[in-house]
Amino acid sequence: MRALLKNEWTLIVVAFIASILTGVLTLAGASPALAFLISAVALATLATAVGQATEQLGNYLGPGVTGILQASIASLPELLVSFFALQAGLVRVAQSAIVGSILANTLLVMGLAFVFGGWKNGNQRFPSERPRAIVIMMVLAVSALAVPTLANIIHTPAGAHEEELSIASALVLLLVFVGSIAFSLRGGAFVETVAPADLEEKGWSLARAISILILAGVFTAFVSDWFVQALEPTITSWHISQAFAGLVIVAIAGNAVENVVGIQLAIKNKVDYAISIVMNSSLEVALAVTPILV
Fold this sequence. Notes:
80% helix; 0% strand; mainly alpha
């Protein structure tokens, strides 16, 4: 019971308290920097709460469906923060948050998982099929994302149709995303959830798991809006750029689930699951979050 309270409910309570405190600070017109810091903590802990609730649903759903939910819902903070940033005219923040989410997972978190996993367990081995499939999909996604930019930068005749190219690339990515979901539900290699044996003993009911998931999602929507409201004055007062705010702060706060779970699994010598979770998070941002924002 002590471990249950420490590992699960403490973070959930902190997430909801930080969310409510963010709302109070925002509505009271308190210091934007303080509201920004509290909202960043709220986003990170809410992401963890969403991840825990999704894992609980895995006790009632198949591994394919649970894996898709984990990959999709984990990207909710990046999607909402980028959406509100675009509404506020902070385009550079949204662009940097997308790039930062992909780079933070692929380079920083995956690198930390390899370092700490190798430090604890020595040489680690994992099947190559799933990472190879994810890498191929990532190359395809990055290529599609680069098409409108390259057409504009090298001043080709297609550069005059940058908006149309962006929409076409977004549609292609969404089609690939839908195809990957169908492939995963048939037992493919793109999405996999954490094996039940790797999770702690948990006893949430289905109603409790769904309730926590819905509440965390609603709180994430409000906190993301408040986060963006406090972001612009904080950027000015701290003398940082929009690119740094999106690339570092938003990316790290929005990827708390993958940061923690991926490294923990690598330390437990479950490096195949670590790679699947971390790399699928980057793939989800490229294949789904970006085209939805476009």
